[in-house]
User: What shape does this take?
Amino acid sequence: MTGDWLIFAALALIAVISAVMMITSRNTVYSALFLVLDFTAIAVFYLLLQAPFIAMVQITVYAGAIMVLFLFVIMLLGVEQAATSPGLPLQAPVAIVLAFALVILLGYGLLQQGDGQGGLAAVLAEGFGSPIAIGDLLFESYLIPFEATSVLLLVAIIGAIFLTARARRQAG
Amino acid sequence: MNVPLGAVIGLSAVLFTLGVVGVLVRRNAIVIFMSIELMLNAANLAFIGFARSLQDLSGQIFVFFVIAVAAAEVAVGLALIVAIYRTRLSIDVDEVASLHG
Amino acid sequence: MFLTQAAGADWFALAPWIIGLPILGLLINILIGHRLGERAIGAIASGAVGLAFVVAVFQYLGLQAEPEVASVLVAEWIRIGQLDVAWSLNIDSLSVTMMLMVTGVSALIHVYAIGYMHDDVRFQGDPGRFRRFFVYFNLFVAAMMILVTADNYLMMFVGWEGVGLCSFLLISFWFEKGADGIGNAMAGKKAFIVNRIGDFGFLIAMFLVFWTYGSLQFEEVFHRAEEMGDAAGGVVSLITLFLLLGVVGKSAQLPLFVWLPDAMAGPTPVSALIHAATMVTAGIYLVARNHVLFELAPASATTVALVGAVTALFAATIAVGQFDIKRVLAYSTISQLGFMVAAVGLGAYVAGMFHLVTHAFFKALLFLGSGSVIQGIEHGHHNLQHSDGHHGNGHFDPQDMRNMGGLRQRMPVTFWVYLVGALALAGIPPLAGFFSKDEILLDASLENTAVYGLLTAAAFLTAFYMGRQVWMVFFGQPRSEAAGQAHESPRLMTVPLMALAGLAVVGGAINWPGVHWLTDWLEHTIEHVHAAELSPQVAGISTGLALVAIAIAWLFYGRRPMMEGQPDPLRRPLGPVFRALENKWWVDELYAAVFIRPYQRLARWLADTVDWAFWHDWFHDRVLAGGFLGGTGWLAWGFDLPVIDGLVNRLAEGLRGAAGRLGRLQTGYVRNYALTLFVGTILVLSYLLMR
Assistant: This one.
């Protein structure tokens, strides 16, 4: 039991600290990298929570593709520049206060539910979270969302190309 | 890992909140975007936790889709940011405030 | 006699024509009169009245066959609850007497008026008014017939008012002439208003009759009155006293006689017909008709008699001091009416009616004669003005006796007929006036000594002032050039005069003592009539006094006729009394001071102060209008503008301010919007969780 708590605590700590670092880091590249670390920690969580496939997907897509894309763009656009305008005075304090409120609320909501107390030591079915199981469910019950997602990805590709295409005939 | 579900959800909540703070406080568009991704991840974590607790694989399917959509979204969003940078030469969100009342 | 044996002849069916013929005459004159000549108009009018006289004769013949009452229904009129008033003609001896007298004398006066008005409209300068005169004249006869043939109070009142209206129309016939250009109109107005007081009495009496006896029909009322007798209490006295008020107004008794002298402003035929022979006798007829009620209230009857007697003497005294030829006759009429009223007041209905008929003859004669005299003077004046080119001395009054004199030679026919009339009025036997007046005096001597004394004194003065008039007008030398130029009137005028003179001579035959033909005739209607025997004593006293009076008049006016410019011989002996007589005892002035001026002041006060200043200026303008304007002004400026408009305006201001303030929420910063979103999320979450 305590071993579980120890692992959990350690991973949680990593996740939270890297999240904080990401937010507060002045260097955008550092932020991205911290985010990668965060994603990795979460992927480990997934593994521990009997979701191996998803964990792999997380690492592959999120940390591998999405963050790389982020880094590409960061490199393309240059690093953080100095703030030119004064910024909004009340924004930060209010946001932090409200964030605390949110945490409290969510915590309260959690405590309301009795399920939060129970553990996760139930006996799972064989192959819970395995690719086979995921695949079964995905292509039987969730086939249409799957196809829709593929269309969405296609649209995203076209959109991305279109948005970044330079106007050709402008020069001259 | 035999921790109460509440712990997982609590962690998810904290991460989510951190993501919200990041969206609200930072001025760099890319960092905001990354905070959004953090929020999404926090939600995913909650989903996985519930899937494990309720022994229902649907949670994991949902996370699968979330990741896929997040990918598409990031692609388009970053393309937008690039396009904006091309005209404004800045990705400070406070710069794009011409629609004020 | 054979006429009454005409089988199946129903004379009474013709009765409505007695009213219808004058109406027909006036309608013809109104519609096509302007295309006919004067002669035709006069002929139509006179013919209508003449035929009415014939119808009256037929009624007389009809009553000979069946001497009781005949009733001819003309039309239904009012039928409300207990009140059932129809227009029925009541043909009995009393009404036939009146019918015959009125239509007969009217016919003669109509003929006279053709000649008289021919000259009069030319003297006054409006020949076109000839037609109007005869229309009014016929209307009068019709109204008088309605009055006389009525069988109920209401119908009689219709006629009563009708003759009052015609009197007014005819008095103010020359409405634009007279003193100050309105003198004649004022006289007509005076007649109408004074008569109104009498009419008020008549109306109250009528209401009381209906209230007491439940009907307005003469027959029913008299029947019930006799049944109830004294059970009705003092109501009968009240009714009769109010009827007396009506009589006093219409028949010009004290104190409402003041309109009759002023009524002389009308043309002379009007004075003759209406104010001597017919309309003024309506009062006496009223009393005779209501004899049943007067017999039930002896006190009222005595009052009537006294009023009549006092009036007789009072008016006679005034007549002594008058210089206008028509005024003398007017006061004489009032005095003679007093005789008649006294007679019927004493219960001597026959005597009263007898005198009524004879008086109609000789008074009409006298008036028409005076008209002839006046026209003669006018002609003379006219000739003077045209011949010498000298236009008379300012105001020449052709009616002033001081401008006359010596007309006996210049107008002989007029003189003789006038003399007959004067002697008849004075009561010299065997003319008509003697018999009728003597019968009244006889009845008075038997019933009431005070009345007898007053009437005798009045008779004495009557003879005196008539003598004075005759000597002043016809004897001596002409006192003005106009009189010297006067000439006799045309035959159209003198023939009716002669006819009336004839009637004045033989008229006494109607009720000669011993024969009592009228008494018998009227007995059918008025039950308790007694024929008093001729008393030589009374007759002797009255005749003797009349002769003495004529002698005294000769002494003053006949022996040494008045010269031009000479004051009246009576002025010195009587002194201030003569001045009082000349000024009619200042009755009109008294009325003006006591009634008229305070009334006018009251009217002015009511008009200026109450109506104008109070109602109009203060109440309407300040209170109502001002209040309304103030109120609406407050509503508009004090309430609508600041409150309601203010409300709306402030609402708009508020909205604008709020919009401005809310607009600041749109900062344009995405992060702010995100923060707002976040705030909303927290709120929703907290609500959901706290539930």
Notes: Residues 108 and 135 of chain A are 37 Å apart (CA to CA). The domain at 1-80 of chain A is CATH 1.20.120.1200 (Four Helix Bundle (Hemerythrin (Met), subunit A)).
